[in-house]
Amino acid sequence: MTKQIVVLGAGLVGKAMILDLARDYTVTAVDLNEAALADLPAKGITTRVADLSRPGVVAEVVALADLVVGAVPGFMGYRVMEEVIRAGKNMVDISFYAEDPFGLDELARKQGVVVVMDCGVAPGMGNIILGYHHHQMKIERYECLVGGLPLVREWPYEYKAVFSPIDVIEEYVRPARFVVNGRQVVREALSDTELVEFPGVGTLESWNSDGLRTLIRTMDIPNMIEKTLRYPGTVEYLKVLRASGFFSQEPVEINGVQVRPLDVTAKLLFPKWQLKPGEEDITVMRIVIEGEGRQLTYHLYDRYDRNTNTISMARTTGYTATAVANLVLSGRYQRVGISPPEYVGEDPENFAFIRQYLAERGVKYELTST
């Protein structure tokens, strides 16, 4: 009997995962937005309109699932994951929530479920790569530079968002944690701006973001940092918006009504940041791992897939998650409890499977060694 997968969230990334998993499994797609589900029944996918924020709804929609894949906005991610765990279901999740995932580890162990979180591109594939090499060599330095960008730059933002706009803005305000000489350092987001050259792309702007996440706890590496990439000039206007209070979650009174500036900003920016139909994007990532006198560099340059009309960020994020979903469904990954992606990458066979799975879908990480 074909295994049953329930995917929570049918946005741009969620839909890419739904279609990929539907090749081999029976998939049910769940979303509050009926329009996001509209074209899926014609492709043999069961859909369900549901408000996952309501008590008991998550448990109800995942009741028959062999695996749950989470693709909800970050502000919902932790609570939804907790409800999936309480329902006794294995899960692979890409929501970029702020809470500590290990807060759910004891519950997941008690329920006997496998939960892989942060399973996207970065965090996600970067963690998987580092997890693999961490068990192969003594690492002294890890650096990950990553960004999703529109292929065509348009003033004023030169950026398009494929995730919830509030999740994107969270990157601009959440303090960035990194490790220097064995000590954790915390800096404000958007700090330490640098210009970096990428072949075939040109000059991009990098800045500190909080992408290391679980690696700070799970890796004994003295120097680690993750930085986000954007087109040059982006950081300056983001700092102006942040300093002016547009990203604040503290309500302000407007004509007797309490309003969060963040909600207004997200509402205004979302239509300006949306990718138009057929508009292409790219994903750029460079990972550098140094140790034992060697330097390993992984390069990723991925573009919108015109054959399937799938955006690059959905491909690079979503297919990492669906690769890991296959490992969990097949029983090849069975670690009970909360698993950050680096745990999955520790096994050489799992690492090879994920790279091959991505390569078969045109997402190729090129490795150079010096």
Overview of the structural elements:
By secondary structure, the protein is an alpha/beta fold. The protein has two domains: 4-121 and 312-365, NAD(P)-binding Rossmann-like Domain (Rossmann fold), CATH 3.40.50; 125-303, Dihydrodipicolinate Reductase, domain 2 (2-Layer Sandwich), CATH 3.30.360. The chain contains 13 helices and 18 strands. The strands form four sheets. Strands 3-2-1-4-5-6-17 form a seven-stranded parallel sheet, sandwiched between helices. A seven-stranded mixed sheet has the order 10-11-12-7-15-16-18, with helices on one face. A two-stranded antiparallel sheet has the order 8-9. The longest helix is centred in the last third of the chain and has 18 residues, at 312-329. The radius of gyration is 20 Å and the shape is globular. The mean pLDDT is 95.
Biggest beta sheet summary: 7 strands, parallel
- Helix/strand-derived category reads alpha/beta
Give the overall shape: globular
Mean pLDDT: 95
How far the N terminus sits from the C terminus, by CA atoms, comes to: 48 Å
Can you give keywords for this protein?
2 domains; Dihydrodipicolinate Reductase, domain 2; 13 helices; single chain; alpha/beta; 370 residues
Write the layout of secondary structure elements.
Blueprint: E1 4-8, H1 12-21, E2 26-31, H2 34-37, E3 46-49, H3 57-61, E4 67-70, H4 74-86, E5 91-93, H5 105-111, E6 114-116, H6 125-134, E7 141-150, H7 165-173, E8 176-180, E9 183-187, E10 194-198, E11 202-208, H8 215-218, E12 223-230, H9 234-243, E13 252-254, E14 257-259, H10 261-273, E15 281-291, E16 294-303, H11 312-329, E17 337-339, H12 341-345, H13 348-360, E18 365-369
Parallel strand pairs: 1-2, 1-4, 2-3, 4-5, 5-6, 6-17, 7-12
Antiparallel strand pairs: 7-15, 8-9, 10-11, 11-12, 13-14, 15-16, 16-18
